Amino acid sequence: MSVTHMGGAGTAADAATRVRWTRIAPTLLVIWIISMFDKANMSIVQNNTDFLKDFALEGKQAEIGFLTGAMFLAYGFFAPFWGWSVVKIGARKTAAISLIVWALACFWSAISTTYQELVWSRAFLGFGEAALYPYTVALVASWFALKERGRATSFWWIGTMIGPMVMGLVVTWLVINFGWRGQFNAMAVLALVLPLPMIWILVRDTPSQHAGANAAEGGLVVAGALEKNEDAPGRLLDLTLPWWKNTRFWLVTIAMSSNAIFYWGWSIWLPTYLRTARGFSFAISGYLTFVIYGFAMVTILIVGHYSDKIFRRAPLACAGWIGAAVFVMASAFAPGQLWSVVFSICALCCLQVGISCAEMLIHSVVSQKDMGASQGWRAFCTLMTGALSPVLIGKILDATGNNYISAFAVLAAAVVISAACMIKLIREGY
After folding, report:
1. Which residues contact 343 (CB under 8 A, 6 or more apart)?
2. Which of 12, 52, 163, 343 is most open to solvent, judged by the fewest CB atoms within 10 Å of its CB?
3. More confident residue, 68 or 78
4. How many CB atoms are closer than 10 A to CB 193?
5. Ordered structural domains, the chain, with CATH
6. Banded pLDDT at 7 (limits 50, 70, 90)
7. Separation CA 211–CA 288 (nearest Å)
8. Which of 199, 426, 158 is nearest to 315 (CA)?
9. Statement: the pTM of the whole predicted model exceeds 0.70
10. What SS3 state is found at 46?
11. Are 73 and 387 in contact (CB under 8 A)?
């Protein structure tokens, strides 16, 4: 019996095309890598003496932290708007608009002459990048069967590690050779010449809209939907219940929000910690970021593959977050430079076990039809919480005379909360 290809005629015997792996997943990966350049570059820039002098920020840790905090406040505040946009105009158009916005924000940062103007430019960047979670999760739900979403999620989620990893090398090199303003201009151009053409040329909202995808590939998504997987933890999900009344969704959201306190407080201040508390030079502290995030990237790929096989993510997430709390404190108390770096690597690897499994859990606790809207509000909660972290850490450092033990203790407590949120889901078999 013949069937119709989504990109032409064919037969039922036709193998499913792999557009989801060759075009959708790589595009999302590139977008997330570039987005992390733009979000995390401030961790390098804020250690540049010319930048600090231009804005009179020497020794003002709280004000430095707010440059990232302002971005995340806008990121979180506007995420529900972009979730609405995904529902109304689709993920592809939403992604294209957001990329243009964040490129303009980087150009604005490059020409800023006052601290207040720089803060507003970073907030505008947050507005543009707030679309990331809603359209990414919506595309994964539209293109991948449930049992593929662990690997699919790990594919784009490693961008959150590759970005900071490569950013440590690239941004350090750009700042040294072209100054901090030249670095922001380079980030703007990069957003326009790489991810924007990819999203417009390679991506469509669903397999049925893509000329390269056949009916068999679209059928995999339908057959692999949450409600059709009897062995999935999601069988417990009441698909008639609105997402905002879904207790499991809110447990995952709280866990991810607490994780954001750790991740953004730790990652933004990591180069400064390595430079001021551990005695590494500006260049070396930036390059060490490459090594630390490299190990975390490998961890994400392993977890994505393994979690799809066992279909259990909550226990892995819980164990990862507990490990992150232990190792971040070990890093603070480590007697020398080497052990501090080793424990920092272990902390970030454990953290990525926790958060990557939580990202995968989203697909078992929320139905496909609710992905766009629910992830807008999930990002609102996560990013509004994470926005406070760089500022909080800055204030703790100011109040304690740069005592990183106190600061890291706050981060450890945050991921203990994340781990506790997994207890109910572990009992239910997630």
Report:
1. 327, 328, 330, 331, 334
2. 12
3. 78
4. 10
5. 17-427 (1.20.1250.20)
6. very low
7. 43
8. 426
9. yes
10. coil
11. yes
Report how far residue 271's alpha carbon sits from residue 286's, in angstroms, rounded to the nearest whole number.
6
DSSP state of 13: T
* Structure tokens given for 28: 């999302």
- Residue 379's H or E segment, with its range, is helix 371-400
Lookup: tokens for 126: 């947050």
Tokens at residue 50, please?
């010319």
The arithmetic mean of pLDDT across residues 237-258, rounded, is: 84
Q: In 36-53, which positions are buried (b, 16+ CB within 10 angstroms) versus exposed (e)?
A: bbbbbbbbbbbbbeebbe
Q: Which residues fall within 8 angstroms of residue 185, CB to CB, at 6 or more apart?
A: 106, 107, 110
Tell me whether strands 2-4 and 9-11 are parallel, antiparallel or unpaired. Answer: antiparallel
Q: What is the DSSP string of 81-121?
A: HHHHHHHHH-HHHHHHHHHHHHHHHHHHHHH--SHHHHHHH
Task: Return phi, psi of residue 147, to 5°.
Answer: -75, -5
Measure the CA–CA gap between 145 and 147, rounded to whole angstroms.
6
Answer yes or no: are the C-beta atoms of 59 and 276 closer than 8 Å: no
159: its two tokens: 């961008």
Please list the residues that pair with 3 across neighbouring strands: 10
pLDDT at 13: 32
Where is 123: in which H helix or E strand? helix 115-129
**Measured distance CA(140)–CA(191) in Å, rounded:** 21
Length of the chain: 430
Per-residue pLDDT at 4? 40
> Distance from first CA to last CA of the chain, Å, rounded?
39
Write the single-letter amino acid at 247: T
Tell me the three state secondary structure of residue 17.
coil
Band the pLDDT of 219: cuts 50, 70, 90.
confident
For residue 267, what is the enclosing H or E element? helix 247-272
Hey, what are 376's tokens? 């807008």
DSSP 8-state secondary structure symbol assigned to residue 369? G
